[in-house]
Design goal:
Oligomer: single chain
Structural class: mainly beta
Number of strands: 28
Order of helices and strands: HHEEEEEEEEEEEEEEEEEEEEEEEEEEEE
Shape: flat
Helix content: 10-25%
Number of helices: 2
Strand content: over 45%
């Protein structure tokens, strides 16, 4: 045997051995299903096992007579319902198989939900009715009701039939979740309007709207039920029986965000109810900063600059609430920064020059928790002011 033949046999043996090893490895290594997290692995395995069981059953009964249950409509929505109302829905159940079908009410999801079958045994092709009765709760609920009736069968491929019903309970008084007065200037009243309605009453009268911490005016007028409120939806689509539109004008007493509750007194069919409604808004700072160098969230940023020359940024400053006030630079941080304010032709408008002077020592003021600022305001009334954040790093970075 020559040398080439020997090498060829050795190479063939190595290939055969590697292939045998790879085949054996595939028999002992198990792979996780792709895309299934470990927390859902048990659910996945149960679902796969159920699908396998169903496939075996279909194959087993493919050529055998069996009952087959079909129900319609298996899902029903009662819509808007009144408290302690009795509702009924009938479901048709048919045996579409070729063997006798046995039916039995196994359970319902609520004590207020009952079901009754007219017939419990159906020959092939026969049908019966299941009457579902739902007695609504006397207690108000904001969550939709979801109920289920489970019927046990002898259909080997469909051991249970699940009939579902749902409803939403009408409420005596419906308010918005909250109202927003938006952003406005100090001394400027903000106005918002909103709709309240009833799904049960015939008369709705707003007696009072108040809040002890805010000065407000209000007016309420009847709102047509067929008036569009959101897109193409009307109050009638939400089963409203009577509605009122309330307009509130309010003036805040300080700058910044504010929130509180409106106290409403409402007569519903002659009976007074007290309710509260969350509201919020924001009074803009009395002084605003504008210009291409200004970011409304972060202020102005010098970046990283050398101290071998002066660096300037320019900002337009406007007194929004009272243009006649005397505005000046109140404070600067870090102290090495320089700020100069010059009035413009328009009353209440100024040009602010912010400078890092030549030869400034190393300063770092570009961190969220440690940045610079310029305070602009009325020297006679410090509350009439605003802060402009300033970021940057300055130093002699070319020094040896």
């Amino acid at each position: 045997m020559n040398q080439f033949t020997k090498r060829l046999l050795v190479f063939g043996g190595l290939v055969f051995g590697f292939a045998s090893f790879a085949l054996a490895l595939t028999q002992v290594v198990s792979y996780k299903p792709w895309g299934v997290p470990d927390s859902r692995r048990d659910d996945y395995d149960q679902r796969v096992a159920e699908l396998d069981r169903q496939a075996i059953l279909r194959e087993t009964y493919q050529n055998k007579p069996r009952p087959s249950a079909r129900a319609w409509p298996a899902v029903h929505d009662f819509g808007w319902v009144r408290p302690e109302e009795t509702l009924r829905h009938t479901v048709e159940i048919e045996n579409v198989g070729d063997a006798e079908l046995n039916l039995r009410i196994r359970e319902t999801s609520s004590d207020r939900l009952t079901a009754q079958l007219e017939e419990q045994r159906l020959s092939a092709g026969e049908s019966t009715r299941c009457t579902i009765q739902w007695v609504t709760s006397s207690q108000p609920s904001t969550e939709p009701f979801q109920g289920r009736v489970t019927i046990a069968t002898n259909d080997p491929l469909n051991k249970t039939l699940v009939l579902s019903v749902s409803s939403r309970q009408r409420k005596e008084l419906v308010l918005p979740g909250a109202i927003d007065f938006g952003s406005h200037d100090m001394g400027q009243a903000s106005t918002v309007d909103f709709v309240i309605y009833s799904q049960l009453a015939q008369r709705l009268n707003v007696v009072d709207v108040s809040n002890p911490a805010f000065d407000l005016q209000w007016v309420a007028v009847p709102e047509p039920i067929d008036q569009q409120t959101r897109g193409d939806q009307t109050l009638g689509d939400r089963s409203a029986t009577v509605a009122s539109r309330i307009t509130v004008e309010m003036e805040a007493k300080d700058y910044g965000h504010y929130s509180d509750q409106l106290e409403l007194t409402v007569e519903v069919d002659g009976q007074q109810q007290q309710c509260k409604l969350d509201f919020g808004g924001r009074v803009r700072p009395p002084i605003g900063f504008y210009g291409p160098n200004v970011d409304r969230r972060t202020g102005v940023d010098f970046g990283t600059v050398e101290n071998n020359e002066q660096h300037d940024l320019f900002v337009v400053v406007r007194s929004r609430a009272d243009r006649s006030r005397n505005i000046a630079v109140l404070d600067v941080e870090p102290k090495e920064l320089q700020a100069e304010l010059q009035p413009l032709e328009t009353e209440g408008s100024y040009r602010l020059r912010i400078s890092i002077p030549k030869g400034c020592p190393y300063r770092r003021f570009n961190l969220a928790e440690q940045h610079g600022y310029i305070q602009i305001g009325d020297p006679e009334m410090k509350s009439y002011s605003n802060w402009l954040p300033v970021y940057g790093v300055v130093g002699d970075f070319d020094a040896d």
